Amino acid sequence: xxxxxxxxxxxxxxxxxxxxxxxxxxxxxxxxxxxxxxxxxxxxxxxxxxxxxxxxxxxxxxxxxxxxxxxxxxxxxxxxxxxxxxxxxxxxxxxxxxxxxxxxxxxxxxxxxxxxxxxxxxxxxxxxxxxxxxxxxxxxxxxxxxxxx
Length: 149
Hints:
The protein has helices spanning about 5-20, 20-30, 55-65, and strands at about 5, 45, 50-55, 70-75, 80-85, 85-95, 100-105, 110, 115-125, 125-135, 140-145. The chain is of the alpha+beta class. The radius of gyration is 14 Å and the shape is globular.
C-alpha cells in the first residue's frame, strides 16, 4: 500500500507517529527547541541535500520546523507505530539510477529533490519496503514507511 500525503497531512501524520495530538503539535511548532540537545546536520550527496534524525522530542520538533526539503520520509514499526532508526535508504531515479544512498538513518529523513518520479527503497531488520513518489516541485510529499513486527 502506498502512503503519500501532501504537506497539509505531513505534520499530522508525523504527530500521530509521535503520539502527539494535532493541537499539541501546533503548539509544539511554535515552542522553542533546546538546540543543545539537537544533533541535526544538513548533508549533501551527489548534489542532493538531506537531513536525517528525529531521535528525541527536541530533535523531532526541530525537524518539524526545518524548511527547504520537499520529500519527508518517516520510518516506523509495530502496532504502536514506534519510530524506527537505523534504516538503509536508497533513492533512485525513475530509470533506476542510484541518486542517494544512506546507511542507518531515521527515524525521519528530509530530502530536497527536483520535480520528477523517484523510487524509495528502505531496508530495516532484514526487510525491504519500496515506494514510488512523484514530486511536483511545488509541494511537500510525505512517505510513511512502516514495518510490521
